[in-house]
Amino acid sequence: EPTSGLDPSNSQVMKNIIRELKNKGVTIILTTHNMHDATELCDRVAFIVDGNIKAMDTPRNLIMSRRYNEVTYLENQKELNTTIALDKISTDKKLQSLIQANALLSIHSNEPTLDHIFSEITGRKLL
Asked: Among 12, 107, 114, 120, which residue has the least CB neighbours within 10 Å?
């Protein structure tokens, strides 16, 4: 937890030290529950649960593999919401029927944070 308990200025100093070492080719093993720091500083992250690695990849790949669309639509004169994985939009039957019925109100693509991915993969929430 390299930035735990540090004020914002000293947290930035610590992050800069880590980046300088990283730029020199030093391998750094960073243990943290701060997913913002992990996203910002790490080339690869691993989520470990009960001693087992549940996922390991670059922060970007983990985030990009879980992109989704928030869809708002009308059904029976009610405004409803659903989510659809971005890689499933071309085959999602619900979305296809909403398009055909001209019932879509909005579609927004989103990328989850590593916090969300951690919770999804491990079944646990970060406090």
From this structure: 12
